[in-house]
Amino acid sequence: MTDSRYTVQAKAEVRGAETVLQTKALLTDAIELVKKQKIKKLGFESLHVSHAAFVYLQKELKKVRLVPTKGLAEDLRAVKDPAEMEKMRAAAAITDRAFRHILGFIKPGVKESDLAVELEHRMRVLGASGPSFETIIASGWRGALPHGIASSKKVAQGDMIVFDFGCIYEGYCSDMTRMACVGKPSAEQKKVYDIVKRAQQAGLDKIKAGRPAGEVDLAARGLIAKAGFGRHFGHGLGHGVGVEVHEEPRLGPKIKAPLTRGMAVTCEPGIYLEGKFGVRIEDLVLVTERGCENLYKTSKELAIV
Predict the structure, then answer these.
(1) CA atoms of 181 and 119, how far apart (whole Å)
(2) To the nearest 5 percent, what fractions of the chain are helix, strand and coil?
(3) 220 burial level (CB within 10 Å; 0-12, 13-18, 19+)
(4) For residues 238 and 203, what is the distance between their CA atoms, to the nearest angstrom?
(5) Cβ-contact 88, 284 below 8 angstroms
(6) Number of CB atoms found within 10 A of residue 12's CB
(7) Are 242 and 190 found together in one domain?
(8) How far apart are CA 23 and CA 68, in angstroms?
(9) Is the peptide bond between 249 and the residue preceding it cis, with omega within 30 degrees of 0?
């Protein structure tokens, strides 16, 4: 069901279903369609239908059984088919090239926001329709903010910089995090970076079809904790990526669900030292029977500029 803005597009893109033109309010038209087709049982997405909409459905569809559902579309999207995988590989290739490009623009005095503009412009030049989320560029003390959206802060000598970004290519997302340091890193910066790099590899080594997501998370989390930085890594190890940059599955310490061949997931451990700096390294991989396919070619050695 669509309105007049997307009629032509819907006819071109929708397969195996009738396209219905919306003439009134979307919910009103949907209810009329349910009545017309004499539907007796109707599922609704429990996480997205508001209470007001649910009450309206109950009122207008008294003879219809309303069944709450959760994750029907999300579970289907979690496993990618070959065509989807190719689009994600292309998005990842654009991301790789954009990061190599931005390294030439890093210098003391440049604003994080200016680097973000250049990075996003470059991804569009390379074929992306836009960024897959608001670009994170966090330098110096702002690197300890896991979601430090690019700000007006100027990069300074000695800063570690977190670049967490991605693009959309033909409807599919990429998501990558790499680090750069302006000048020679300190002993502490090198130590923390090495721990995160080893933890990220430990997580990647555990990714495999059939393995519980929590086991993958704990492989990386355990290494960070053993190194004495456990309390500085608070978020989950990763998440699914596809038509949205955050989707199913999730990689967290308590998640028991197994990974499935064809899932696209991130592996992104981090250590965040408040008031000092932060380190995160992230790859996007496809789950296989024997392990995983890393979609990125960019080196995970610390880039020194």
Answers:
(1) 17
(2) 40, 25, 35
(3) buried
(4) 10
(5) yes
(6) 10
(7) yes
(8) 27
(9) yes
Residues 57 and 106 in one domain: no
* Last residue in a domain, options 46, 70, 94: 70
pLDDT class of 18 with cuts at 50, 70, 90: confident
Residues 66 and 82 placed together within one structural domain of the fold = no
Q: What is the mean pLDDT of the chain?
A: 96
User: Same domain, yes or no, for 281 and 188?
Assistant: yes
Asked whether residue 199 falls in the same domain as residue 169, the answer is yes
Residue ending a domain, choose from 13, 44, 70 = 70
The verdict on 197 and 153 lying in the same domain is yes
Looking at the fold, whether 84 and 60 belong to one and the same domain comes out as no
Q: Which domain holds residue 247?
A: 78-304
**Largest interatomic CA distance in the chain:** 71
When divided into structural domains, the chain yields a total of 2
CA distances from 116 to 44, 93, 143, 175, 260 (A): 39, 18, 15, 15, 34
220: left (phi over 0), alpha (psi -120 to 50) or beta: alpha
Q: Output the domain CATH number for residue 254.
A: 3.90.230.10
Residue 43 shares a structural domain with residue 171: no
148-151 long-range Cβ contacts below 8 angstroms, 24+ apart: 148/278, 150/112, 150/113, 150/115, 150/116, 151/111, 151/112, 151/113
What type of residue sits at position 267?
C
Q: What is the pLDDT of residues 108-141, one digit of tens each?
A: 999 999 999 999 999 999 999 999 999 999 999 9
Closest CA relative to residue 76, chosen from 288, 207, 247, 252: 247
Beta-strand runs (E) in 97-251: 130-131, 136-139, 160-165, 167-169, 172-173, 176-181, 238-240, 247-251
Tell me the whole-structure pTM to 2 decimals: 0.90
CATH number at residue 58: 3.40.350.10
- The tokens for 70 are 């959760």
3-state secondary structure of 47: coil
